[in-house]
Amino acid sequence: MPKWGMVIDLDKCTGCQACSMACRVENNIPFAGPEQAEIGRAKWWQEVLDREVVGHYPALEAQFVPRPCMHCENPPCVKVCPVGATYQTEDGLVAMDYDLCIGCRMCTIACPYAVRYFNWFVPQFPVPLDQGLNPDVPVRPKGVVEKCTFCIHRLRAAQARAEEEGRELRDAEMVNLPACNQVCPAAARYFGDLEDAGSTVSRLARSPRAFVLLEELGTEPKVYYLKGE
Amino acid sequence: MKQISRRTFLKLAGVSAAAAALYESSGSILHALNLVDQTTLSGKEVWVASVCQLCPAECGLRVRVVGGLAVKIEGNLQNPNNQGRTCPKGQAGLQLLYNPDRLQTPLKRAGERGEGRWQAISWREAVETVAARLQDLRLGGLAERIAFLYDRPPGLLGETIARFCQTMGTPNAIDACPDALSQAVFLTQGWASRPGYDLDRTRYLLSFNHALLESAQPTVRLLRAYSFMRRGRPGDRGRIVQIEPRLSVTAVKADEWVPIRPGTEGALALGLAWVILRERLYDHAFVVEHCHGFEAWSQAVLQSYSPSGVAALTGVAEETIKRLAREFAGTSPAVAVGGEAVDQQTNGLVSQMAIHSLNALVGSIDIPGGVVMQRSPPLMSWPGVVMDDVTVQGLAQARIDGPERYPLAHSASHRLPEAILDGSPYPLEALLLYRANPIYDAPDAEAWREALKRLSLIVSFDPFIEETSVYADYILPDHTFLERWIAAPLWPSLGFPMLAVGQPVVEPLNDTRALGDVLIQLAHQVGGGPGASFPWTDYAELLRFRAGGLMASGRGSIRAVTADEFWRELAARGVWVDSSYRFAGGDGGDLKEWETVLATPSGKFEFTPQVFEDRGISLSPPYYAPPRYSGAEDEYPFYLQLCTLMAQAAGPGAANLSHLHELYGLHVKHMWGNWVEINPEAAHALDIDDREEVWVESPAGKIRLPVRLYEGVQPDTVNIPAGLGHTVGGRWAAGVGANPERLVSARQVDELNGMIARQGMRVKVYKEEEA
User: Fold this and answer.
1) CA–CA separation, A69 vs A78, rounded Å?
2) Cβ contact A103:A118 at 8 Å
3) Residue A53 belongs to what domain range?
């Protein structure tokens, strides 16, 4: 069984946020608007965090860190969900059953990476913006929590295609899988099977430059970062 | 492949059937799901090639169309410009197509000019009326009284507009957005375009305020080149030095940030040249064989630009100047690149010349890893214009904007209000506008408003109502880019010729028409010379005619037997490319190419341009002049720097894309609006806190916007992101942010090329009670 993971090379990343925007349009995430954005409710399943600028002019350091869901092997969000709405798939994705979600937001608090967003409102796509919605991804209703799926719909479609053709998914196909991965202008992101020792992600995850966020929490993220210079 | 039904798919996606039923019951938001019912995931899905028009880089796109609706934009893998990727603006492109504030039909003014009352009219009426008004002017022998103002029209539209003007008999095809870098290259290399840089092989990139990772073009290409310099060549990590007043994203990601006093980049370049000359680190062979005027130029540099003097001018330490010069000259191939912010100073042209001269000094002209000259695709030449008496007489008239007032100007659009108000050299009657919005982005909006009132006809072709088109008599709205044909050569970068082609990916949403089609219809309606000069039924046929040159050349990535086959293949792939670039220099260089890349009168790189002499420009080497700032230092203590962020798209409707507002200010976590960045110590001295609203005032005007404290700004400088602060243009454009162009003075001009020096302002910052 594969374990899907991602590697993000911070040395190559330019902080352009194409990943964030690709995620937003691929996954039918509505914009929040100025008032809701102001109180932190703009939803970015994939968000580029910027580490505070450190130092004083002109000796300054800053860093941009793209942050999708870590799809932890040991996910705190799953443990706290009282109704089993958030769960792990067999191949290690942390997924949501929106139908079961009661909107208690325990998962949102439990997630140390702040990847989960609660839908405070019915999502709005003022006509005719709704015509551009991705037919492969359901729009989530008000009152549930939503998050990065590693573009499970793209992955499952690719798997179905491979199965149809009687073959395994190829490493070379991974570039087109999560929308954030596909779009990255700097080609700084990699997706694939961490269980497959020959895959690009598996090789990069073993690089001396590799690290995970908040490793000390024992969440075992499946998103690895490669350090900058 | 087996078709996946929607229900099966939702199951695969981890969504239960019950949940799907729930969504279906919740109404309009589930429009998207209904689509899946109509088709299937594997069914009526097509990917159609297009070309992005949200900035001038014009990346190749593939658009996913399901059931006749465009549902996702991705990059075109075959296009070497963006190699299958896009920037965030491109990803938001569907928000332009499906924008709720697009114009629905042609409009005719119903109230007073600028009142904003409109009456919908038919295309037939629109085209006939506008053509008749233009023809009246022509028949009256007043064709020159028509002007067409445009700002970076995408692809081949600029040439089409210029031809339209020529056939109508007006010299007034006016580009609102000239640039100084291409002029610097013209003066030194005789080549009238921006240069490209072979960054995949560059080992040292000295960026003078070049927004490599933000607003510079071609964006995605530059981001990829950055990444390749970092990790694409194991063991050969390129070094990037960002010289800029602001800690931009580029400065953050560079190996070194060198803050500099705004407008003194050219002086720093000459300071580096001083060290390279004094220490004899320059490329002797290149200078001897391929340079003109080196002696005079180098003596002048050595006389006046010692590191200590330059340190005083620029604020860059003497030791840093020496070190950068040694690194630059000692790491081959190295390139020096001047950004748009350098253009936009009163000394923009001479600064770009100084920066570009560094490339010649170290022999980086036309070598692998150095400067390259962007080749054009071998398009079919335009057929001759059919001239009639009206055309001949009109074209013989002076330009309305008077570019001849500046020795090297091609256009001087900022002079239009004055020329119109003075009626000199003749009264202007008709103004046609495309992607140009001077009331928003040119200095002195009030003069523009007054001037527009004097005209008898104003026609806008933009798909949104904008600050300037509010004053139009007719709006003939363009399609958005996903609804029309596009052909776009490569923005100067990779050097080899390329043509990206886009086609309508969906049926037009509204009753709009592509400008290219409308120009042809207007020409046909006018008839005579103009009609005969556009022997095509529509813009697609025009493009197909011009693309015929690609097939005839026998070069490039597409081979076809028939013209039909070639055009079909070109549209399907979305790009034609001939990916070979023959360097003149370097190992194995083709010496014949020197004639092409050094097309000056001397056939050499001219450190002392002969064009200066020819045009009676009495400047002496090395030509640098210090920047002039508007506003006295004691009253206006801060330099103002306008920056353009990654999430700032360009063109009509660009500020009305709601998604982009929500990733606007990454480094200060600011969304939905812009701000003024102030150094915390400077703000403290003014008793101003983070997020507090302040006035920023220059001698030209004042705006109110929130402060963001930012360590990455020099204590004597403030930065404002430009592109927001519209008053009209849609629900997400109007009233969001403040427009810093209001702080720019129309008198701040580079006297050599007539460009507005929008970075040359000083400002003061105060809270309300101090006003």
Assistant:
1) 13
2) yes
3) 4-226
Of B257, B666, B711, the CB nearest to A50: B666
Query: Is residue B128 within 8 Å of residue B525, measured between CB atoms?
Result: yes
CB atoms within 10 A of CB B693: 14
Interface touch B13/A139, C-beta < 8 Å: no
3-state DSSP of B154-220: CCCHHHHHHHHHHHHCCCCEEECCCCHHHHHHHHHHCCCCCEEECHHHCCEEEEECCCCCCCCCCHH
CATH of the domain at A210: 3.30.70.20
- pLDDT > 80? residue B97: yes
pLDDT at B11 over 80: no
CATH number at B107-178+416-478+513-534: 3.40.50.740
Is pLDDT of B484 > 70? yes
Q: In CATH, which superfamily holds the domain spanning B181-372+593-614?
A: Dimethylsulfoxide Reductase, domain 2 (3.40.228.10)
Closest chain A residue to the Cα of B84, Cα to Cα: A183
Q: Which residues of B touch A138 (CB under 8 A)?
A: 10, 13, 15, 19-20, 23, 30, 32-33
User: Mean pLDDT in runs of 10 for chain A (229 residues)?
Assistant: 97 97 98 94 94 84 94 98 97 96 98 97 95 96 97 96 95 94 98 96 97 98 93
Tell me the chain B residues in contact with residue A129 when contact means C-beta distances shorter than 8 Å: 95, 98-100
Give the pLDDT confidence of B143-194 residue by residue, as tens digits: 999 999 999 888 899 999 999 999 999 999 999 888 999 999 999 999 989 9
Q: Over the stretch B244-259, which tens digit does the pLDDT of each residue have?
A: 999 999 999 999 999 9
How does strand B173-175 pair with strand B146-150?
A: parallel
Ranges in chain B annotated CATH 2.20.25.90: 6-97
Phi-psi group of B152: left, alpha or beta (phi > 0 → left; psi -120 to 50 → alpha; rest → beta): left
Helix axes B123-139, B515-526, angle to 10 degrees: 50
Using a CB–CB cutoff of 8 Å, tell me whether A83 touches chain B. Answer: no
Which of A8, A13, A23, A25 to mutate against chain B (most B CBs within 10 Å)?
A: A25
Q: What are phi and psi of B630, to 5 degrees?
A: -90, 125
Alpha helix (H) ranges present in A46-185?
76-80, 106-110, 152-164, 179-183
Length of chain A as a residue count: 229
Superfamily designation of domain B6-97:
ADC-like domains (2.20.25.90)
Q: Where in chain B is the domain with CATH 3.40.50.740?
A: 107-178+416-478+513-534
Which of B92, B223, B715 comes nearest A185 by C-beta?
Answer: B223
B638-770 CATH pick, 3.90.370.10, 2.40.40.20, 3.30.1330.10, 3.40.190.10: 2.40.40.20
pTM score above 0.80: yes
Nearest to B752 by CA among B346, B370, B224, B187: B346
- Give the pLDDT confidence score for residue B687 in this predicted structure: 96
Structure ipTM over 0.90, yes or no = yes
**Phi, psi at residue B206, to the nearest 5°?**
-100, 105
